Write a sequence for this structure.
């Protein structure tokens, strides 16, 4: 996967056996954290299910060395995640549902911009992690497509094809933090993804007020000046372009009635 990762603006290799990453001479990044099945059982529909013991690898703060100071100045961080192939019992391989902790420098729960590199993703998101989840969306995305999760929404990333490992990059707030308590109290988000053959179907979580799930494809986020180019390359060309990730408070009107 070296060429694929490089095509998205970073000289790095994604590994699946075991899960992890290695970096080129001009790229820095941490040792990946491995999320194991036992770590995420509390967020699964069936916490006793079987599946890959290493579910996904995550590396936060991957960057070209010449970009690091600019990223720190703008309070931005680029993360890379890769999932194992397979399934978690009846569910697809996926992340735990969470919301982003409020950042001290902005006073907001920051948004996140995903870019799919390999596989097929569903970015599931809901307005609230309370009993009434508000609007719920499942955004189905393939390689090269971008999905923006707005501030304060609960969300999870799902591998929609059990036969192909999912890999993606994401722009995040440098002061990032994940909060799981409200989701775990509801034993997951408002909708559980289930695999029927190789297709994803949805089951409502009865611990939330019933509502509707909107299945959509990615749109162009022209109001944020995002183009079709790889998102890391967009930062190289215009370091100010993703300031809305770390400072969503600067343009609150763009988040009102946001539609993924």
């Amino acid at each position: 996967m070296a060429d694929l990762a490089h095509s998205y603006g970073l000289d790095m290799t994604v590994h699946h056996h075991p899960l992890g990453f290695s970096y080129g001479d001009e790229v820095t990044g941490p040792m990946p954290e491995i999320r194991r099945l036992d770590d995420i059982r509390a967020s699964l529909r069936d916490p006793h299910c079987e599946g890959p013991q290493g579910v996904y690898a995550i590396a936060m703060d991957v960057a070209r060395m010449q970009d690091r100071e600019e990223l720190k100045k703008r309070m931005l961080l680029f993360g890379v995640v890769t999932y194992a192939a397979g399934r978690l019992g009846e569910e697809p391989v996926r992340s735990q549902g969470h919301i982003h902790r409020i950042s001290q420098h902005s006073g907001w729960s920051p948004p996140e911009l995903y870019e799919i590199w390999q596989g097929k993703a569903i970015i599931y998101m809901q307005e609230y992690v309370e009993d009434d989840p508000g609007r719920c969306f499942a955004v189905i995305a393939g390689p090269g497509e971008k999905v923006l999760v707005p501030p304060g929404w609960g969300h999870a990333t799902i591998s929609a094809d059990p036969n192909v490992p999912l890999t993606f990059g994401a722009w995040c707030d440098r002061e990032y933090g994940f909060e799981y308590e409200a989701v775990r109290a509801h034993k997951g988000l408002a909708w559980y993804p289930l695999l029927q053959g190789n297709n994803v179907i949805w089951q409502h979580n009865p611990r939330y007020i019933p509502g509707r799930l909107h299945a959509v494809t990615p749109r162009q986020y022209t109001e944020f000046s995002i183009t079709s180019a790889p998102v890391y390359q967009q930062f190289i060309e215009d370091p100010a372009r993703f300031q809305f990730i770390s400072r969503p408070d600067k343009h609150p009107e763009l988040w009102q009635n946001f539609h993924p």
The helical segments are 2-7, 37-40, 68-73, 181-185, 231-237, 243-246. The chain has a mean pLDDT of 94.
